[in-house]
């Protein structure tokens, strides 16, 4: 008996729960069975459909090469089945829905009218479902929106600018999207609420959790006047790897991303990097050149970010299109990267080298896959080894045309 068969969710002869046959409930079940970074689960469900995927998960039949999708191996699929089966006892989408409905919430699935269009840009990395609280229409709120993100350990300057951006965007009828974290996120949400403008918080835990605890009042206000959203079902705890995955949703749902304050290792940079990878415009707020809290912003400004000093400039980002037919978009070094290489690149720091083992934790990938991704990135000239670790290679600046 294989490791997967030892953790089969059902005993011999047991019947499947009734929710397995319901496509919507089955889709919700997968949001608990698989972690947000589990691309293999997304391929597995996409290949079979949510109900059939659950039936296969509960089946004791040996894995065969014929049922493996492109690029998959029997052993890898077997490990995936074991990983998902280990959470079967925790999975009951009807119970999760009851908890959500008791809070006045709802679920939004791919294909629903409320599903944000921007999530399609994640191209295989879309969430299984979105668990939502709040009175606004999610798709409508995301149509004209700016992600305002930054450091938790923000300065007074950073919080003031974030609040002003939230107020200015709200006054213009645009939505402020952020992560409800301490520092910049909270200031941006409060500014939007103060102006009466729409604002959306995307969490790295269940929408029934007040995290951080000091933002309990803010989250209540967001549930009453804005939106609180998560791809994780009720009761899910915040974990480090879930914040990185949450950032991809912020980047994709928003029309553009503005980083207000960020040090070299700020998680806000992962939001900007993901936005850039999917073709969304990014901006950054300049700060004092002596402030470590603005070092990440200044690095972005030296690359492709637009300098942002107020809400009107942030809104100008929405006029930057992904492809201008009159001026073709030049090829970028990361165009054509595999999903694996892209995920590894997200976890590689801009400046300070990080070991492969450290990248494993940041990317949520096995060591062998991280090493394969690093090899690919080195070949593309995007990552360089340094001091026993890895960091991003400096990007070449585009020619300015001066002196010609």
From TrEMBL:
Source organism per UniProt: Quadrisphaera granulorum
Pfam families documented for this protein: DNA_processg_A
NCBIfam families: dprA
Family under the similarity heading: Belongs to the DprA/Smf family.
Descriptive protein name: DNA protecting protein DprA
Domain Smf/DprA SLOG per the UniProt entry, residue ranges: 107-318
Gene Ontology terms describing biological process: DNA-mediated transformation
Gene3D superfamilies associated with the record: 3.40.50.450
InterPro entries associated with the record: DprA (IPR003488), DrpA_SLOG (IPR057666)
């Amino acid at each position: 008996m294989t490791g997967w068969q030892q953790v089969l969710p059902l005993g011999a002869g047991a019947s499947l729960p009734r929710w397995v046959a319901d496509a919507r409930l089955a889709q919700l079940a997968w949001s608990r069975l698989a972690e947000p970074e589990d691309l293999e689960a997304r391929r597995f469900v996409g290949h079979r459909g949510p109900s059939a995927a659950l039936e296969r998960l509960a089946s004791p039949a040996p894995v065969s090469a014929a049922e493996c999708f492109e690029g998959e191996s029997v052993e890898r699929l077997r490990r995936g089945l074991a990983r998902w089966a280990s959470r079967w006892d925790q999975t009951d989408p009807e119970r999760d829905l009851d908890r959500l409905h008791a809070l006045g919430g709802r679920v939004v699935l791919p294909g629903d009218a409320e599903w944000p269009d921007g999530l399609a840009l994640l191209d295989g990395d879309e969430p299984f479902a979105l668990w939502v609280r709040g009175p606004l229409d999610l798709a409508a709120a995301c149509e004209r929106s700016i992600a305002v993100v930054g450091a938790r350990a923000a300065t007074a300057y950073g919080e003031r600018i974030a609040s002003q951006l939230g107020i200015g965007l709200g006054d213009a009828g645009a939505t402020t999207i952020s992560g409800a974290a301490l520092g910049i996120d909270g200031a941006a949400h409060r500014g939007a609420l103060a102006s009466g403008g729409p604002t959306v918080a995307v969490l790295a835990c269940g929408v029934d959790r007040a995290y951080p605890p000091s933002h309990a009042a803010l989250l209540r206000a967001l549930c009453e006047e804005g939106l609180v959203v998560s791809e994780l079902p009720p009761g899910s705890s915040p974990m480090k790897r879930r914040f990185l995955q949450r950032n991809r949703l912020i980047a994709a749902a928003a029309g553009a991303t503005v980083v207000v304050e960020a040090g070299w290792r700020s998680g806000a940079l992962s939001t900007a990097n993901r936005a850039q990878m999917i073709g969304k415009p990014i901006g950054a707020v300049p700060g004092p050149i002596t402030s470590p809290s603005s070092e990440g912003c200044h690095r972005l400004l030296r690359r492709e970010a637009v300098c942002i000093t107020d809400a009107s400039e942030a809104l100008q980002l929405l006029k930057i299109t992904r492809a201008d037919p009159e001026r073709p978009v030049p090829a970028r070094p990361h165009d054509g990267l595999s999903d694996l290489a892209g995920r590894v690149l997200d976890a590689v720091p801009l400046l300070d080298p990080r070991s492969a083992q450290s990248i494993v934790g940041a990317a949520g990938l096995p060591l062998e896959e991280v090493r394969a991704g690093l090899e690919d990135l080195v070949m593309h000239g995007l990552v360089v080894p340094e001091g026993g670790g890895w960091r991003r290679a400096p990007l070449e600046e585009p020619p300015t045309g001066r002196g010609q």
